[in-house]
Amino acid sequence: MNLTHSGAGGWLTIDLGAIDGNYRRLRGKVGDRTRVGAAVKADAYGLGVARVAPVLYEAGCRHFFVATVDEAIALRPLVAADAQVFQLNGPFQGCEADLKAAGITPVLNSPEQIAHWAALSRRTGSRSPCVIQIDSGMYRFGLDDRALTDAGDDLEALDIQLVMSHLACADEPQHGQNRSQRETFLARRKAVPAPLSSLAASSGIFLGPDYHFDLVRPGYALYGGNPTPGAPSPMLPVVTLQLRMIQERSIETGAAVGYSARFVASRPSRIATLAAGYADGVPRAAGGRTFAILPEKPDILLPVIGRVSMDCLALDITALGDLPLAPGTAFEFIGPLRPLDAVARDLDMIGYELLTGLSHRYHRDYIEKVK
Ligand SMILES: *Cc1c(COP(=O)(O)O)cnc(C)c1O
Fold first, then answer.
1. Among 41, 278, 352, 362, which one carries the catalytic annotation?
2. Residue nearest ligand 1's atom 15 by CA
3. Alpha-carbon distances, residue 305 vs 289, 293, 295, 315 (angstroms)
4. Binding residue ranges
5. Considering the entire predicted model, what is its pTM?
6. What's the CATH number for 16-223?
7. Does 352 participate in catalysis according to the annotation?
8. CA-to-CA distance for 282 and 312, rounded, in angstroms?
């Protein structure tokens, strides 16, 4: 990889071919009876929806899920008209006509959202497609039994294309809530006249066919995250993040590195200052918790030390001995040597947070899918 001509402090490589491969893997996993949609909210989990959505479309995806109205309107022209764009949070009052005009399908989560969408249909004399979300026991979005009863008449006035719900504990296959949410979904969806049902996101797919229904909605797994924590990842890695060295320091025992003097050298040390900080999504508290690797020395874990600054962090590279390093040298922070889920675990985060926090200051390099 040639970093020489980039002025950026970090280099983000996003493998579109691996996203394509992951989509096809998930399709193989669920079989022909279940469609595979894609969650592309939050700019496709930080990876760039304008690059990612067309790759998924070409792989066969026709059901795209985003969170907000603005995301939905931005996504609509990026995929052809035979793809549906679903807006998960549902519209705030006043946005209904914009969604309808843009050809976006809202997920209606509450009696109020249903009433306003139904009112739009009555006003315009044409029923617009929508999704109904059922609360199956996560208590975040959707209708419970009472709300379903109250919405009764309005439901009849809608063109409901899909009934869905969301699992709270799918990354813990043994958790009893998975089965209880599935049962609640099965019971409550009877009140909703919809041709298709959907329950599973990435981890839910791996709970088995009982959870697949007609449509699954993976996000994280498409982007190389492990949907089966604790077991080897069934997905292809997608993201590599390399951070570049600005300068290095040789320090004596007792020298304190960085803000608040939080790291004090217990031996003469070699310290590299790398060009990414908390403004780039590296948490301020990462010091003492995670590592980077020089790709030429893949077996040596180099600890991040001290407080992470806004634009830089310190790496203890004493273990490299006197190996010469030029300014601009790249260290792997996330990638094949430092898997996304391992870095997230180190930092007491989830990989979702790391991905969605990836900075726009990084140089972005997209590896095209091999045709
Ligand atoms: C974000 C989201 C998804 C995708 O979840 P992953 O765990 O990333 O696969 C699916 N459905 C809903 C409702 C979501 O909010």
1. 41
2. 88
3. 8, 14, 19, 6
4. 140, 310
5. 0.96
6. 3.20.20.10
7. no
8. 9
pLDDT tens digit sequence for 216-262: 999 999 999 999 999 999 999 999 999 999 999 999 999 999 999 99
Classify domain 239-338 by CATH number.
Answer: 2.40.37.10
Strands (E), the chain: 10-15, 35-36, 38-39, 63-66, 84-87, 105-108, 129-133, 159-164, 196-198, 215-216, 239-251, 256-257, 263-264, 269-274, 291-292, 302-305, 313-316, 330-334, 363-367
- Active-site residue, 259 included: yes
Ligand 1 centroid to Cα of residue 39, in Å, is 6
Distance 116 CA to ligand 1 centre (A): 25
Give the residue extent of every domain in the chain.
16-223, 239-338
Whose CA is closest to 176, among 188, 186, 185, 168? 168
- Give 352 Cα–ligand 1 centroid separation in angstroms: 10
Helix axes 49-59, 16-30, angle to 10 degrees: 40
